[in-house]
Amino acid sequence: MSILIVDDATIQEINRDYLGKNRPTNVISFAMQEGEGGGVQPELLGDVVISAETAARDACEAQTSFESELYFLLLHGILHLLGYDHERGTPDDAERMEAKEREIFALICEEFLPG
Hints:
alpha+beta; Collagenase (Catalytic Domain)
C-alpha cells in the first residue's frame, strides 16, 4: 500500500482526473484489486491519498487533533481498499463501514493517541 499526503490543489487534480469531481476532498483510495488487472498482484492493496489541508480544516471543525484526523482518514482509506463502501453500496453497507471505523479507531486511539 502507498500513502500520499498532499495539498488541496493536488488532491483536487486527482479527484478531477480520476473521479470526475473538480473539488478537493479529504481522502481518495485506489484499490489495486478492483477493475481490469485486479488480482494480478494480490499482495498490493492500493493507494491512499490524503489532503493535509482538508484534514487540518476537518480537525479544527471537529475540535480534534490533526494527528487524530490523519489516523481516521488513513483508516477510512484502508477500509475502502479492503472493499468497504459507504457511497455506492446500500445503507447497510454504509453502516457496516461506519461500525468498522468506530471499532478500529477506538483501538487506534487507545494505542497510539494521547488523551
